[in-house]
Amino acid sequence: MFWAHYNKKNKQLLPEHLQLVADGSLNAVSESVYFDGIGFEKFAHMAWQCGIFHDLGKYTEYFQTYLLHGVQSHDKDHAGISALFLFNYLIQQIDNPINIDKIFSFLCYLVVRFHHGNLRVHRVNMTPRDMILELQNKQANLLRNATSILNAFPNECDKKLFDKCLCLDEKTLQIICDIPHLIKKRYKNPQWFFFLILLFSILIDQDKLDSGKIEKKFRKQVEPSSILAYLQEKNKGKKLNLNERRENARRDIMENLTLMTDQEIVDQRLFTLTAPTGIGKTLASMQVATYLAQRMQSLGFKIPRIITAIPFVNIIEQTLDEYRKICGKEINLLAHYHLQAIADPLAKENDYPLEKVLLETESWEADVIMTTYVQLFHSLLSGRNRDLKKINKLAGSIVILDEVQALPDRYLPLIGNLIKRLSMHFGTRFILMTATQPRIMDFAEMLKDTNCNVQPVKELLPNNDVYFEGLSRTKFISLIADKAITEDQFIKAFHSNYDGTNAALIVVNTIKRSLSIYNKLQNLYPRRVLYLSTNIIPKARKRVIRKATKYLRYKIPFILVSTQTIEAGVDLDFDLAFRDLAPLPSLIQTAGRVNRNNDKASHLPVYVTEIENDGGMIYGTEQKNRVKAIFKNKAVICEEEFRGLVNEYYSQLLSHGLDDVSKNIWEKGIIELDFEQLNKFELIDRCDDIADVFVEFDDKAKSLADLYIKLRIQLNEVEKEEYFEVKANLKNAIAAMQVYFLSVRVKRIKENKPLQFEDRSLGKVKSNFYWIPKEQMTEYYDFFTGYKDEGEAFIY
Q1: pLDDT by residue (tens digit) across 589-613?
Q2: What burial letters (b/e) apply to 715-753, b meaning 16+ CB within 10 Å?
């Protein structure tokens, strides 16, 4: 008997594991998958072959002895010999010269070789001779036991083919060593990257799901009618001017969709939804996705998953709450982001084993998935095993990118082309949604990827000009002078334009600036100023938003001082705003928090100022100068003109040419398959001098910290069989702790340094983050403004 797994919790025979992973891999392939030279059926068969052979090396006595008796041996490793067997198997029908089929076979070899680790192509440092030395003992052992192996092995090959596939032929091994260099030079093609990550993702995902005993779930369809029912319930009794506009926009969108032929539904992969803030894009995009999914299912496709990615964690709960009401209990809705614990870690027991829940979450095993841009794009542009295992769930899915203008300018070409290639190879349908479309497909053209053939983008609301022109909720009023004003001059300007009878929003660019302005306004408007930024823990940010919502509901005058945390999707509706100079999309997002529901007077003011630099360079001089040039020609700009400003802004940005960051990651990381280059992708700039600080804010924080220490100690002491259960509980506890964490620049803590968290465990648990004990909160953390520092340091 040959075993794949053998412990107290999981005893599984090897032939069964191979068959289940192979069948799971076959079923996981979307009908929409396509590569030049490899269609859906051929790709699906290759996925099956990777599954059936991926653990062939476990048939060695070295591995079986290790599994059953714990006997360590260098030759127990099984991935290398399994990968060689697969490569030899695949090239049996291929002529000697290297061609496209041999490259696909090589990529399959990589998938199996690295399925227990991180994916890589270059710097493997192997020669044919090295490979022979590495594999010869395993080869000999498999050949010696061929008869008994073939009796147990799925009926895929006879003795002659088995021997041939285990051949350590130097000529064949040289091909394996040569192909990485050919991919970088003669056979350059972006499709290798997408083929490789998709196949790798399918194999490791199915391998982990089978090993974790996760039962196959049948996909369920969200009915478009459920969105209509939710909208009717949500708007019951409300009589807002904007509701009629929202309903008209939604009808226009759906009429545009229903006119699409079946062939257009199959071929069209890229959609934009451009509409003003407050027009109801979140629910409209969900209705679009459910309608597309329904049409695709009627045409014989598997039910597509719906994946919504949001740029900012602080707005994800708001959207998630609406999704829960739409999906109900029948639809499997999953939220995957770093602040989301999968279960209450302090509960005495959970209904379902936590390690299984964690595995399903990290694998995106659900009908509807809510996630963040960081999770999505950092997983795509990665070679890490844990990141890539979910990526196969994009194939054949419908992906909504909410607030797409929040993507950094420097990455627009890269992400634009990434979206095009995913739509071409994975059959993914994208809905790019925003009030200020960043013309991302125009930026994608900068990479000159001429072999990427997809249908042009389809705008879901082609008459959106009507909705922009008809709105007169806000206007920009420029207070920008010949030179930047001081902070005190800004306070004076605010005071002269705020009469204290309504709700005002102030948005500045750095935490240092926001703290200073908040403290000065507290003296002018005692007990009427709220503060919101990443300087306060996430749990406290929710409290501030709830308080602001209450003030707005009961028309209590107040001022909210914030950083960019307030932008994009936070559903608050102010009477006026002040915004420090920023790129135009950010200014428009701030304007979207003023008169949001169009139920106040027209053209409420959004004052734009330029406060002198406080040392925190969030935006470059060039970005600011483009906006200053706009306001130089016109000091007052009404909302009806915002659309034209956006087009002008992105036209100027396009004229500046391709950013080197996008160019290098595309050409080196993707085309040349250099996964180390992909590590340079940073959607959110995280400097090396950032320190994480855990704030023991309340009793729950204290209990979570106790649990973390307990689980860390257990992890080093438990037997192998219990390890994954404890690790899953630890990951869940860490996720729950995130609402109490701050990321602070190291120079801010030099003068007022908190304790190391390991001091809390008396040195029993090593950690790389700081800790503010509950008893010492007042020394390090202010209840209203967050982390304190003693010097002039800042973060942003």
Answers
A1: 899 899 988 889 999 999 999 999 8
A2: eeeeeeeeebbbbbbbbbbbbbbbbbbbbbbeebbeeee
